[in-house]
Design a protein that fits this description.
Layout (H helix, E strand, L loop, with lengths): L1 E6 L9 E7 L6 E2 L4 E6 L4 E5 L4 E6 L6 E3 L3 E7 L6 H5 L41 E2 L1 H9 L15 E2 L1 H9 L24 H16 L12 H11 L11 H15 L5 E4 L4 E4 L5 E3 L1 E3 L2 E3 L2 E2 L7 H17 L12 E3 L5
Parallel strand pairs: 9-10, 13-17
Antiparallel strand pairs: 1-8, 2-4, 2-7, 3-6, 4-5, 6-8, 11-12, 13-16, 14-15
Helix pairs in contact: 6-7
């Protein structure tokens, strides 16, 4: 028997670390060569990692949601061979590193568990809610100068009854009976942000920090475009893409970006350099089961309206199915987001 350590592989150019979003194996599992063992997500894509050997899992390098550096220990196998596999020896040893936790938010102390209220404690209604009571009860309360918000309710749907009012008076204004009012809740729930949600939160935070935000609203009569779209879609086969408004917007955006290159540019605030891009690579926001993704239509300036429609359809389907390539998620120079009708 021998052991084989599978290190985090290099899964893309320029990638130095990846988040393990899903484990397909656990300690003690027996796997065969090429069986899936984990899903690793980078800034560009999610990649399924497969086992390089057959054997038994004796150690996993991290938990789901942890980030591992390329070359760090991912899985240790116990194999049947007496000699260690050559691939293991050929891999240069990487310094043992503890798995990094996602860094968007600092560690927070856990809130103490909420103490259970005694059985005799009054149940308060929501702050600011108007007490429920009949006109007769309200009149009696006014005559006795009693604030109904201080009276616990035992009636149907949290209504204050005459008996509730009398009990309040009898207690000297200290109503301690249980009621059917609303319950005050304490404590917090902490949810670990992993996978696509972590990437989205990091990108949105960076966007707010580094990009000036402004809004501009312009009303446009789209009647002629809609008529043209209906005309062009007429007679299209079922397996051919149909024109939505997105290809028209992308075509217009690509022409404008060529005329106004300062809009098709990126700014490096650390280096103090503006880079104007000659190619127009339009990112399009796409909602998927994993969250928001931004596939890129590369060189939109060289595509006609039908080619753009075909590419939009291809990228949208690939994003939703999870099969999109990392190259289709990178290189954007300008982004288009459709808010719908």
């Amino acid at each position: 028997m021998s052991t084989y350590t599978f290190k985090m592989p290099d899964i893309g150019e320029g990638v130095v670390e990846a988040e393990i979003t899903t484990w397909h194996v656990k300690l003690g599992d027996k796997v065969s060569e090429d069986d899936p063992i984990a899903d690793a997500m980078t800034d560009k894509a999610t990649v399924e990692l497969t086992s390089p050997v057959s054997g038994t899992i004796t150690k996993v390098g991290c938990e789901e949601g942890d980030i591992l550096a390329i070359g760090a220990d991912l899985v240790v196998f116990e194999t049947d061979g007496d000699v260690k596999i050559e691939a293991a020896a050929s891999t240069p040893p990487a310094p043992q590193a503890e798995p990094k936790k996602p860094k968007p938010t600092p560690a927070k102390k856990r809130a103490p568990k909420p103490e259970k209220s005694p059985a005799t404690a009054p149940i308060s209604r929501a702050t600011g809610a108007r007490p429920l009571a009949s006109p007769a009860v309200r009149k009696a309360a006014r005559e006795q100068d009693i604030d109904l918000s201080m009276v616990s309710a035992s009636g149907k749907a949290g209504q204050i009854t005459h008996e509730d009012l009398q009990a309040f008076v009898a207690s000297g204004g200290r109503d301690v009976r249980p009621s059917s009012g609303y319950v005050k809740r304490n404590g917090v729930t902490e949810i670990k942000v992993t996978g696509m949600r972590r990437i989205i939160s990091e990108r949105m935070s960076a966007s707010k920090r580094h990009i000036p935000h402004f809004s501009y609203v312009e009303a446009v009569d789209m009647s002629e475009i809609e008529a043209l779209r209906a005309h062009l879609n007429k007679g299209r086969a079922a397996d051919q893409p149909k024109l939505t408004l997105i290809p028209f917007f992308m075509r217009a955006l690509s022409k404008a970006a060529v005329l106004w290159p300062q809009c098709n540019a990126t700014f490096d605030d650390e280096a103090g350099v503006i880079t104007q891009h000659h190619g127009v690579h339009i990112g399009m926001a796409a909602q998927t089961a994993s969250g928001l993704m931004v596939p890129v239509v590369h060189h939109a300036e060289s595509l006609d309206i039908w080619q753009i429609a075909t590419e939009v359809l291809r990228l949208g389907e690939a994003a939703k199915s999870g099969s999109i390539a990392s190259a289709d998620l990178s290189g954007g120079t300008i982004t288009l987001t459709s808010l719908g009708p």
